[in-house]
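Notebook, p. 212. Picked up where the previous page left off. The plan for this session was modest: take the two constructs that came back from the sequencing core last week, fold each one, and keep the raw output in the notebook itself so nobody has to go hunting through shared drives later. Recording the first one now, exactly as returned: residue sequence, then the structure token string.
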Amino acid sequence: MGWGRRFLLILFLWGLAACTNAGETAVSPSPVPLSPPADVMGDAALGEKLYQQRVLGQQGAPGCITCHSLVADVVLVGPSHYGLADRVETAVSGQTGRDYLWTSIVDPNAHLTAGYTADTMYTQYATELTTQDVADLVAYLLTLHEN
């Protein structure tokens, strides 16, 4: 191979290397905290949109509506969310409904609903969702009253 071709090959390989992202580190989102930050307020309208999505996050996490019904006594995979806001304030002694729902999303095995076993609910929402996503979902869930 002549010097001209070698030079072109080296130039090509150098250009190709410059186009890659070698040496860059992918930035993964910070995990959502286990309790709701006081300075993060949720938007129920955005939470409803998230709730209705069948897939959430970059890894294809199941959306809420995939496993939870909004109809009384209709169980899909997890319990119905019909009237959920009326039940969560007293679900765990000493914990607000907001705290209970937050924990139930980011650490679903922390509080198991009667009749359900650990790991029934997807356990990676803390890394699939953002803190704001969880705040929005909780704000929406707190609107789900029976009447």
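Okay, moving on. Second construct, recorded in the same format:
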Amino acid sequence: MSKTKQEYRIWAKATRKQFNIEYISNIICRKIQDLEEYHKAKNIAGFYPYDNEIDIKPLFQDLSKNWFLPVVIDKENMIFCPYETCSELILNKFGIYEPCKGKEVNINELDMIVIPALSVDENGNRLGYGKGYYDRFLAKLPQQCIKIVPILDELIVKNLPHNQYDIPVDLIVTQSGVYNF
């Protein structure tokens, strides 16, 4: 019998606590920086790490990129606002840091989005926390915006349960490699 999304979430959270996330995050950030897609990107949406997620903050130091972080605006939607290394961040109701709400980025101007995930499968389907914020946002993005998930090798599974609302990603970057879809 296959696992439910909730069972995968519990497994993934427990699994990633077993690893030195700081060390692995540095490896993954270097792999992202080596991507041709990253070199071409100017406007990148990212995330501030939460609960042992891969820490992509080192990427924010790249002054040749414009970084945007998510701001939750209601029970179903989030927007992305500019982030600079000196920006003040506030803790939202989920315990995640976000920029003080500023000018929302036009999604048509995003070249890339780096997305958190608890797990991904071999087809590029990602498993988030179950609120659907990212899937709703990803559904609005233009097709040319590259969707990347930085994640531990150990959190890639053969098949995740998914539905028509789950948006697959283009690239998965792990400590051992890059997977294209």
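Notes on construct two before I forget. The chain has one domain: 5-175.
Flagging for discussion at group meeting.
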